[in-house]
Amino acid sequence: MVRGICKLCLQDKDLQDSHLMPRSLYKKARGSGSKGNQDPHILTVRGRRPTSHQITDHVLCRDCEGRFSKNGEDYVMPLVTRQDGQFPLLEKLKKIPPRLSGKDFSAYSVSETPDIDRAKLACFALSVFWRASVHKWEQAGGELVSIDLGKKYNEEIRKYLMDETPIPRNAAMSVAVCSDVESQVSFYMPSENRKVKDRAVGFGARGLFFMLRMSNTNAPWQKRLSMINNSEGWISVWNCLERGVWKLGDGT
Known about the structure:
Elements: E1 2-5, E2 12-19, H1 23-29, E3 41-44, E4 47-50, E5 56-61, H2 62-76, H3 88-94, E6 100-101, E7 105-108, H4 118-134, E8 137-138, E9 144-145, H5 151-161, E10 171-178, H6 181-184, E11 187-192, E12 201-205, E13 208-214, H7 220-224, E14 235-238, H8 240-243
Parallel strand pairs: 10-14
Antiparallel strand pairs: 1-2, 2-5, 3-4, 6-7, 7-14, 8-9, 10-13, 11-12, 12-13
Helix pairs in contact: 2-4, 4-5
C-alpha cells in the first residue's frame, strides 16, 4: 500500500492503484474467443494495438474511488458497448423519436430522454478529464497520457467532483453516441484535438464520445450543443468515424 495525498480529497491516506479509464472497459474490450491473443485493442496515435497493460497509478484513496464509482462509472459502464457487441444506450435511443434529425445525425434533449441521467454522464466524463489533467499517466512503453486544463479549471472540477460546487459554468461538453462499429469496439485516452486547434479535449469509451472545452470564450454552437450548462441537455447520435472531427493528440 502506498501512503500519500489523495488528489481529490487532498487528505493524507492510503492510495489505491487507480485507473485512468475504468477497469471494466478493458474487460469489455477483451476478445471472446478461446484461441489467439484476446487482449483488448487500444487506439493510440500509432494506430490500434492489442495490450494487456492497464494504465494505473497511485492517485486516489479508497473513499474517492468509491465516489467516482457511485456518482458516474457504475451508471455509465452498463450503457457502453458490451463484449458481445450489444450497445444498450444506442439501442435505447433508436426506439425514441429524436427532437432533431438530419441526414447523418439525431439529437435528443432531456424532454425526449428524461430517464438518461445526464448528471452521472457528466460526472463520469469530467472525472476522466480531471484525472488526465492532474496527473501524468504512464503507458506500457513509457509514453505519457496527460492533458492540461489549467490549475484554475482543475480546481473547479475537483470541487465539483467533491460535491462542493456545481459544474464549472465555463464548461461545454458534447456527448455523442457513435453509430459506427469502429468506435463502438474502441476506447482511447483523453487527448487534445489535433485536427482543430480549439483547446478541446476528448476521449472515447466503446461507443461514447465526450468532447470538453473549458473557456470563457466558448463559441455559441458549443454552448447550444452542450449536454451540460444547457437546459436541453443534448445527446447526439452520429457516425463518429465518418465525421472525422477528432484526431488523437500526442499524449494518447
